[in-house]
Amino acid sequence: MAIGPIQLIVLGFTHPDFRGEVIAELEELRKTDTVRVIDALAVHKDPKGAIAVEHLSNLSPAEAVELGSKISVLLGLGADAGAESAREKGGVHPFSDADAWDVLAEIPNDSAAALLLVEHHWAVPLRNAVARANGFRISDGFISPLDLIAIGLVSAEEARELHDLETAGSAK
């Protein structure tokens, strides 16, 4: 299996109002073969601090067993533990509830966090072309909309709207 670049994204949700939109969008990205969710862990704390954890993955059981051993190495669990964990759970979840405990303490009451381990399918041909040209990744990261003003990609008003959209939940 040719695997694309993998990214871990951690998102926060203040006073979450989940209506299935995030999951639906991840499913659309999978249908178009843009990204694949290798593993996801959603953690919700109610107003009193009670915790609920839910897993999500759109891998087949066979893919999860194969990727479980590789992803678990990245998470410090070891290859054998990862593959065994994926088999025990029906082949779907390289993250375990125990892996999330570091994050749980940081989540305020009446909020949630989502840990998404995604594979970027769209980037496979680009990565391969870069490798054929003897290139390599030096760094990567998301750019704030506010930083796009300086290069003229967006206006100050557009940047503020995008920034507000991206950070709306953190201000409540």
Task: Outline the structure in words.
The longest helix has 14 residues, at 61-74. The radius of gyration is 18 Å and the shape is globular. Helix content is 35%, strand content 21%. Residues 69-83 have low confidence and may be disordered. By secondary structure, the protein is of the alpha+beta class. The N and C termini lie far apart (43 Å). Helix 2 packs antiparallel against helix 3. The chain has a four-stranded antiparallel β-sheet with strand order 1-4-2-3. A hairpin with a 5-residue loop joins strand 2 (35-45) and strand 3. It has helices at 21-31, 61-74, 79-88, 101-104, 124-132, 156-167, and strands at 6-14, 35-45, 51-56, 111-120. It has six helices and four strands; from the N terminus they run βαββαααβαα.
